[in-house]
Automatic annotation (TrEMBL):
Gene: apt
Protein's job: Catalyzes a salvage reaction resulting in the formation of AMP, that is energically less costly than de novo synthesis.
PANTHER family: ADENINE PHOSPHORIBOSYLTRANSFERASE (PTHR32315)
Organism of provenance: Sphaerisporangium flaviroseum
Main location, first listed in the record: cytoplasm
The family this protein is said to belong to: Belongs to the purine/pyrimidine phosphoribosyltransferase family.
Listed name of the protein: Adenine phosphoribosyltransferase
GO molecular function, one term: glycosyltransferase activity
Pathway(s): Purine metabolism; AMP biosynthesis via salvage pathway; AMP from adenine: step 1/1
Phosphoribosyltransferase domain location: 42-153
Subunit architecture: Homodimer.
Amino acid sequence: MTDLVTTILSRIRDVPDYPQAGVVFKDITPLLADHTAFSAVIDALALDLDVDKVVGIEARGFILAAPVAYQAGAGFVPVRKKGKLPAETFEGSYDLEYGSAVIEVHRDAFAPGDRVLIVDDVLATGGTARAAVELVSRAGAEVVGFSVLMELAFLRGRDRLGDVDVRALVAV
Ligand SMILES: O=P(O)(O)OC[C@H]1O[C@H](OP(=O)(O)OP(=O)(O)O)[C@H](O)[C@@H]1O
Ligand SMILES: Nc1ncnc2[nH]cnc12
């Protein structure tokens, strides 16, 4: 196990039965509160990136994607839950591990052909990830990767993301 994986695993708290019975919630707040762990995660997510924009998915994805964009010298684009973005949007609905939601992105968020990395904290069923890839593609960008801090291994592989390169720093 690498030092980074050990550090990440030691800073993620399992909260059983949140937000509903049967779900083990992976709480990243202890990791975010630890400067050494947080900066190591951002460095790893930003390593060797050649992209025009980094997309973050509301809300926990924002916390990771914004510093990754800064570090990579790329712009940051928010994908938000429905009703939060002020200008014209594309929207998509999806199911996730504990519910369903609608996300949006501004129609003019990307220049045609922008190379984009999408960043989130957790990949569980992949519902959010698939909806985000579709949305960003519909907005005219090329999704070159989907990176997450952690992938929930017991929910993995349900049909992932087609051609998109999926990277997880840890599988738990
Ligand atoms: O793979 P999935 O089953 O789709 O689940 C993963 C998504 O669930 C969480 O977001 P949530 O919608 O709970 O939003 P939050 O970041 O605002 O807490 C997490 O941050 C991912 O975006
Ligand atoms: N088990 C889980 N913990 C944290 N975030 C999640 N998003 C979807 N499933 C999750």
